[in-house]
Amino acid sequence: MRTLIVCGILLALTGCGSRQGLALKPGQQLPPAPFGRAVKPTPSELLEPPTLAIPARSVELRTRSERREDDPFDLPPPENEE
């Protein structure tokens, strides 16, 4: 029980991190420009996820119950022949 509490405390402490801005270490460089692009992207551009990484969400709420379409893959389990 004591080890569980200690592990919980250590796990909670791992969430405490530095809230400083990201920067390159001395001597470090940004990655090369992507193929077809003459200018290297800035660090803030590299941190923004591309549009394809965050797809738009379509939320269709059902306002009334509807009958489900027949599912051709909804098959009964195979019978075991022993």
Automatic annotation (TrEMBL):
Q: Which PROSITE patterns match?
A: PROKAR_LIPOPROTEIN (PS51257)
Q: Which portions of the chain have biased composition (kind: Basic and acidic residues)?
A: 59-70
Feature: compositional bias, Low complexity: 41-51
Annotated segments matching region Disordered: 27-82
Name the source's superkingdom.
Bacteria
What protein name does the entry list?
Argininosuccinate lyase
| Native source organism of the sequence | Novosphingobium rhizovicinum
